[in-house]
Amino acid sequence: MRRRIQTPKEYYAALLICCLVLTITSILHSPKISSTKAPFITTIPTRKTFNMSSEEKPTVPDLLNRSKEDIIAYLGGIYEHSSWVAEQFHESLQTQNSTAAPKTVSELFRAMKEIVNNASHESKLELLKNHPDLCEKIERLSNLTEASRVEQSRAGLGSLTSDERAKFTSLNNAYKAKFGFPFILAVRNATKYTVLSSIEGRVGNTVEAEFVAALGQVHKIAWMRLLAGVRIDNPAGFLTCHVLDTANGCPAANMRIHLKRLSPPESAGFIAEYKTNSDGRLPSGPALKGTDFQVGVYEWTFFVGDYFASKNNELTGTPFLDEVPIRFGIDDPEEHYHVPLLVSPWSFSTYRGS
Predict the structure, then answer these.
(1) Is 90 annotated to bind ligand?
(2) What is the pTM of this model?
(3) Which residues form the Transthyretin/hydroxyisourate hydrolase domain (predicted)?
(4) How many CB atoms lie within 10 A of CB 11?
(5) With CB atoms counted within 10 Å of each terminal CB, which end of the chain scores lower, N or C?
(6) Side-chain half-sphere exposure of 40, counting CA atoms within 13 A
(7) Domains and CATH numbers, the chain
(8) Is 281 annotated to bind ligand?
(9) Which tens digit of pLDDT belongs to each residue from 124-139?
């Protein structure tokens, strides 16, 4: 004899059990859908691509150990809409000894750059034409919200005034009419003044000279994309400096120096304070090396006023030179960047040393 459900709680529990049983039964006995029995279900073939997020970034050796499909998919967008560069690069890997394959991002870039440089004029021209028109990009930015314009301000395009936009549009139209391809500039680290100055200077080039200049910008864009797309575990590059006192003809010993990183914004800030040794160099060796040596914009600040105050040089009440800032960029994580300062109380000079 079945027991009658007495309470609402028991009733709802029984109802829930019945629903679960019916659901499971329905799933087990439902017909399976296959692409052969359901012609309305189609598959669209697509080229495999990769999202170059930090979690997925491979090192260069790791990348080149992947399948042909993966290598071409990962490198196919390095040169704008020109996967043939990645395809030819992969072909070259098959014809050389494995020990000759690129090991660093610089070697990978040089290999891909050489393929482009050795391509036909028609292929290079098509590559240039594949790049987006900066003028159209500016017009799209003019319709963005204020927040979106701020995000684009690092490239300098979103902050053009109406007069600057009109000037750029006029120059851009003249450029395209003369050369037959869009104005190309690696704008990631450029201000609007760089953009305007560049197109104003380049529109007067000969067709042959501008073809070379535009291709150089394409290579710069490819280099920045490679840097963003691969992981560099142990950068070989490092940063050093050396200060020489030209007023007294000696190394500038005991000069205080600050180093700051200015970009990228997420890692910007004060790095360290140093004091030069008897040779005018940093006593602890390179200021940056290993994983601390990153692509970006940096600034040395040399406290030359304090230094010359400790010498017997005759100085004015208000020093002509007090703090000397030198802003510089690191573009290759595998090279040595050396920043010498030749300084007196009245002048200074610098250059990229070795």
Answers:
(1) no
(2) 0.77
(3) 239-353
(4) 11
(5) N
(6) 1
(7) 51-233 (1.10.3330.10), 238-350 (2.60.40.180)
(8) yes
(9) 999 999 998 877 766 6
